[in-house]
Design brief:
Layout (H helix, E strand, L loop, with lengths): L15 H21 L23 E5 L5 E3 L2 E3 L1 H15 L3 E5 L5 H13 L5 E3 L5
Parallel strand pairs: 1-4, 4-5
Antiparallel strand pairs: 1-2, 2-3
Helix pairs in contact: 2-3
């Protein structure tokens, strides 16, 4: 005589609703993590205050820090490498070159940088300023 347990022998099954909830929460977690771990492209400097026009779009940024170190698009390089890289990028894409100099930086490296960019035939060079 066989006993009936009251359960169907359909086999194991995977519930989809809780699985979708877990996958959705993982997706939200990783999207949030990506936004909070984004790396900023520039180097932090204390810009001088002046009236200026806001530029939008793609541009080459040369940063001059307070201790007179030079960075091209966030990567520290020598003065000559910054000029060569900026000239190559400007010739390839015709994007404006933006000099972002700290207010405590010496004026000598900035003038030398500007002169070398002019000798490299860069057409558009601007200084980044903080609005008054």
């Amino acid at each position: 005589m066989a006993l009936d347990s009251g359960f169907d022998d359909r086999g194991a099954r995977l519930e989809m609703i809780p699985l979708m909830d877990v996958v959705f929460l993982l997706l939200v977690f990783f999207i949030y993590a990506m936004f909070t771990m984004s790396v900023h492209r520039g180097v932090r400097v204390d810009l001088p205050r002046a009236a200026g026009v806001a530029e939008h779009g793609d541009r080459v940024v040369i940063t001059l820090t307070a201790d007179n170190r030079i960075a091209l698009n966030g990567a520290f390089v020598t003065l000559d490498d910054a000029v060569i890289g900026a000239v190559e990028l400007w010739r390839a894409r015709a994007t404006p070159v933006l000099i972002s100099a700290d207010r405590l930086a010496d004026i000598g490296p900035g003038i030398e940088l500007l002169a070398k960019l002019k000798n490299g035939c860069v057409g558009t060079v601007a200084f980044q300023v903080e609005p008054q």
